[in-house]
Structures are given as C-alpha cells and as structure tokens.
Amino acid sequence: MLRHFLFAGLISTAAGFAYADGSATCGKLFLNSTPPSLVTAQGRTRQLCLSSYAVLSNTTLRAPQWSAERLTGDAVMSARQLARDSDFYEEPRLPPSGRAALADFARSGYDRGHLAPSGDFADKAGQAGQADSFSLANVVPQDPASNRRLWSHIETSTRRLARQHGVVYVVTGAVYGPAPLRLRDRVAVPRYLWKAIALPNAGAAAYIARNDGKLLYSVVSIEELARFAGVDPFPALSRSARQNAIDLPPPTPHPGEKTGRLAPLGTLTKAESSGEAEATRFQDSPAARFVMAVAALHF
User: Fold this and answer.
1) For a 10 Å CB count at each end of the chain, is N or C smaller?
2) Average pLDDT of the chain to the nearest whole number
C-alpha cells in the first residue's frame, strides 16, 4: 500500500524531545485545533499526522502515548459498509530503534490493540484511513479479553455518540507507569487505557479501564484524567468543562456478552493493586517454583 512520507521537523517541549511530522495538517483533528499536551515528562516523543488521525509516539517506550480523531457520524456509517483491512505494518517514519516491530508481538500473548480503532475510518476510494490505522505507531500490547470485549464495547458506544451528535473529538491513550512490562524487552505494555470524548459546546469526559480481562471501568472528568494519565487531551476546554464530566453511555456489549461495571477510579486502581499482590504471592509460592523448575527442563 502507498505511504506518504512527510519531512519531520524537530520541536522542543516540556516533555523532553518531541518531533512533529505533518503537524500543520493535524489541526482539524483536534478540539479547537489544539493538540493534546503532556502534563508530565514521559520520554522522547514524535507526533505523526496520518490521513484520519494523529498519534504521539513515544520512541522511548516504542509505543503510542495517544491517538486523536475527529469522529463523524457519516464516517462511522460508511465504515460499517467496509471489510476490515488487517494489514499491520511497522511505521516507516519512526526510527527502527524507536518503533515497535511485528516480531515484538509474535507469540506474546497480547493482541495488537488499536488506540484509534479501524472501525472508525472509511475511505471508499481505497480505505486509506482504515489502512493507516494498522500502523504499529497506533498499536499497544493489549490483553485479548480487554481488546475483544470491554474495550471494544467502549469503542462501540463512542461511535454511537458520533452518530447521535454528528461530530465528536476523541483522544485515546495509554498509561504505562514508571517501569512497565515490555515485550521482548522493547515494547512497553500499558497498565491502563483511556478514551477521552469531547462533544462540541456540550462538554467532555473520559473512560478509563485496566489492561486486563476485568469488566471494570471508570468515567472521569478531563481534569482528573490529566492528573491520572499525565496527558491533557483537550487543553482548549474551559475550566468548568474540564472539571465537570458529562454523562457517557455505558459500554455496549456484543450479543451474549456481559456488560461492563462502572466503578470509581479509586476502586479501579485498588483492584489492580490487589491483582498484583496476588500475582506476587503466587510467584513466591512452592507451586510457582515447581512450575518454573518443570519449564526449565524443556529448554
């Protein structure tokens, strides 16, 4: 497939080093033409502007920080008529040392999870927007149950909002934490995923979910998201709109699947801590040592 390469200019930010690729054409994708901003430093980053979304790639983590879209009801309806193009590819505008490779995900146990989902995009002339969404710059290692269930349900509800309101601005991101797990010691695995949604002249809010199989999610204000994730998805919002979360619809389950359960953010993070403690207890147990001993005999 054809890829259009744009000259990358170096720009400086409070987050360290950042590169902008085609940033002048990304403005239409952001609320009030203002891109998301990093509240806390998180390594080297590079912004790419693709045909239907923008992404901030963290070349230190070899994973995306956020992806931003201007999602319309017309695009959602058109996308429903197109078969999915699942041709994942390595992003050529990122240096090999700072990008994910296809081999990183092989037999990892994780799905290649889109931040800006392919189901949001339609280009009848050649599916360019949809094909672009399969860049690994837009992909995180995602728990299979999360990717195929709760997170997919949240994406469906977001598309419904676009159909209802005509236009919504969406920024989807990941929270990695200070010492994230890495695939092949390269690609960082997020602990949480979030999706911030702004309805023009109506307000904004964000979903947050853990990157695991639990059907548990939170809805928070943009101000609370910025504190939690270190990213402000909508810097142009008024103070009132930042502090007050609008109501977001519950995740829309697929037929026969369970509905996600809304919980306060403190419950969401506490549940993760409990899971980590349980995993640590197992790793230190005689059963775990036996499993590792047996596995060692096969290598």
Assistant:
1) C
2) 84
Please list the residues that pair with 47 across neighbouring strands.
20, 56
Residue 192 · residue 208 · CB < 8 Å: yes
How many residues are there in the chain?
299
Q: Which of 114, 153, 165, 254 is catalytic?
A: 114
Q: How many whole angstroms from its chain centre is CA 183?
A: 17
Task: Please give the model's pTM, rounded to 2 decimal places.
Answer: 0.84
User: How many Cα neighbours within 13 Å face the side chain of 277?
Assistant: 6
Distance CA 70, CA 30 (A): 7
Mean pLDDT of 163-178: 96
Q: Catalytic residue at 114?
A: yes
Residue 12 pLDDT greater than 50, yes or no: no
Higher pLDDT pick, 42 / 26:
26
CB count within 10 Å of CB 81 equals 8
177 touches 220 (CB < 8 A): no
- Which is it for strands 192-199 and 187-188: parallel, antiparallel or unpaired? unpaired
Interacting residues of 223 by C-beta distance below 8 A, sequence separation 6+: 242, 243
- Tens digits of per-residue pLDDT, 234-286? 999 999 999 999 999 999 999 999 999 999 999 999 866 654 544 434 334 44
Separation of alpha carbons 172 and 194, rounded Å: 6
Q: Based on C-alpha coordinates, what's the Rg of the chain?
A: 19
Rounded distance between C-alpha atoms, residue 105 and residue 102, angstroms: 6
CA distance 14 to 133: 28
CB 105 within 8 A of CB 183: yes
Ramachandran angles phi, psi of 32, nearest 5°: 55, 30
d(CA 36, CA 231): 7
Q: Is the pLDDT of residue 183 over 90?
A: yes
| CB-based contacts of 18, cutoff 8 Å, min separation 6 | 11, 12, 44, 45, 46, 47, 56
